[in-house]
Specification:
8-stranded antiparallel sheet, Sensory rhodopsin transducer (chains A, B, C, D), homotetramer, ASRT (chains A, B, C, D), mainly beta, 123 residues, 8 strands
């Protein structure tokens, strides 16, 4: 299958609320970067997290296998360090093969969930 | 009328919640790919669904007639197989004439609905 | 000021819920095409509405003055005919000067509002 | 680190609700332009606000330091003048180095918040 997408993506809006309502993990407040790797090669992905008041942190590493999607929760990033909650961040994604990246937040701070999503910016 | 759009589109975020609140089918939790075929030719569209842990499934086939829109619910795809609920997926769309593709989720797992939408990624 | 944008835009998702909760007109369920005309010339805009099961309707005509924004509610279109509620549609926008077009729905069918928005597809 | 993004961005949808529910400032109704400056140079940014019925206002000035994100609330703009609440606006952003711009609204007019977000239009 032909690859689709780009090798660099960015989102500028990042924020993981510390509070949640409803059953975990489905309704835990979270932000996701969803990847589609439609190519026949595994994608080696590195993510750099930017903050408002300190140096960027990374790289975080992730493999998205060939012909697979991966919905990566920013909440789950651990190495080199977790992303703090209730903190503004941004993310730069670099991949060795073209992928598609889409950003989503499920926000359950209040009793009823809210959602946002956008295709990330292809650089 | 002149065609507008592209012949390949992708979304990386796909997830159909199994639970819903409110009258069906309008408020059933669903994800949609909305197509606009502004051209004077019918569009023959094929959709491939990607998963996190198994091979892609498809093609699903759909015709969007000339000068028509079609709001296709991923919930309704049946052949070759339905998309399981509560499961992460992604979608690649290929068309023989240029179309515009926009992705939407209506999520009514909780009492009050949430919405997301984005123009898909044109490949 | 230099113009920014494109002269053709499309959205594929269109749907105006017939039901609303909360004070009108702010919280009436509605869909909007928001225009930015940053140029020094008035923009003459035509809109064509596409349906699933009948021929497109239009042109609807709108002027966005130079150096102005206009947030046009699809609910308010009247000539040549209103857009029916609870009906899937799509929209093609053509302008004689470059503008930016962004699509939004405020959905208040249930007690708590939901929102979606995306930059339209530039053709 | 290599810069990513563009030097001009626009959003056409702008609206800051005057009413809010929930603890301030996190759940105050607000609109944000989130910036990512992944480059090694500080970004000098100017913002022009467009209205439906009067001349544009600006420039508003903002610095996004090298290798930082900044989530700027439109609510907080003061110089040359605040953006009035419950008023349609649009925004044009110009930067001297490439940045990524993403637009978000958190709307808490009703008891449960709603969210929208989209990558802005790169000009």
């Amino acid at each position: 299958m032909t690859a689709i997408g780009k090798t660099r993506w960015a989102i500028a809006e990042g924020y993981i609320p510390s509070e949640s309502t409803g059953p975990a993990p489905a309704l835990t407040s979270h932000e996701t970067m969803c990847f589609l790797n439609a190519s026949d090669q595994d994608a080696q992905i590195t993510i750099t997290i930017f903050y408002e008041d300190r140096d960027p942190v990374g790289p975080y590493r992730l493999t998205v296998p060939a012909r697979r999607t991966s919905h990566m929760r920013f909440n789950d990033l651990k190495d080199p360090e977790p992303i703090p909650r209730d903190t503004n961040y941004a993310a730069l994604v670099e991949s060795d093969v073209p992928v598609v990246a889409q950003h989503t937040r499920l926000d359950s701070r209040q009793a009823e969930l809210a959602l946002l999503s956008t295709i990330a910016f292809p650089g």
